Amino acid sequence: MTTTEATTELGFTAALVRMSHLVQHVFADVSHDHEVTPQQVQLLCMLIDGPIGMTELSQLFHLEKSSITGLVDRVERRGLVTRVRDGRDRRVYQIALTGEGTRLAVEAHEDVIRRLDALAKDLSDAEKARVASAVVSVLDRHGVFTRRPGDLPRES
Amino acid sequence: MTTTEATTELGFTAALVRMSHLVQHVFADVSHDHEVTPQQVQLLCMLIDGPIGMTELSQLFHLEKSSITGLVDRVERRGLVTRVRDGRDRRVYQIALTGEGTRLAVEAHEDVIRRLDALAKDLSDAEKARVASAVVSVLDRHGVFTRRPGDLPRES
DNA sequence: CGAGGTTGGTTCGTAATGCAAATCATCATC
DNA sequence: GATGATGATTTGCATTACGAACCAACCTCG
Question: What is the Cα–Cα distance from A81 to A100, expressed in whole angstroms?
Fold first, then answer.
């Protein structure tokens, strides 16, 4: 089925898979620069918009709760996040960024954006928008790693 | 900070990041179904087109050689690949799929394709092609995880 | 109220992943 | 044949991830 056409001829899914690897690699690079692991960076970035509970984190990351416990443990040990008891339900811990954690999260997040934009600098804005909207339409079918406003901690 | 626009408004890079997570998740699902880990599946799929040496694998995966040694060890222990001495240079081991490994690799590969295609079934072929070509143009700037014909083991 | 079940998180044990430094064996060259 | 470069492994360590068992706080219902 495949001939010797290299990357110039590539299926849609193969393109997605390779793009995924590229993104992972960018995350790995950025994480390395900031002395944390990729998973830790992703956790920190997820918390930029506000604290999240353990169970919700496990759903967002598609990981077991015990995995999240370990991840938060290690990031907390580095002083980047804190466990804050929820007043309404004393079982839940809201995971919140510390000052240091916020600084690192924002910087790393900007780095990722910067590097990905640099990689895509040959694409026109229109092309980028088209890709983004196509991706979004796929994502909306399977809400993945998405934090909708309704999921945000309510103040009421 | 954002209003109630959920995923409908999303930056290009954010879309890439989330798509990457989706792809990783698909890999995780497929791997789980086949009783192997995502990394192992990726290794097997990489070998479908023919055996590869350890050093070349470490470059393709952007991992240290010692990490590849461990990965190959575990997959070999399951009887999915074998280390074959290279006749021309007896230092190198070519990693080749066994029959069982080939079967699993092909099945898993097809599963990944199938699931990703299913996710993207709302996109027109034209849209898919556009996304693929945009992605390819980005990838070509930074050859990632790509095995070009020139990288294949030569017979000469 | 209080027993019983559910839910949020942690603990424990285990396996896989990944790095870095040191080591071994084979090439390659002079 | 000594020397150095290269391919791969070994060792030790931290991280990541799962699953099952567990505890504590919540909720419901009699």
Answer: 8
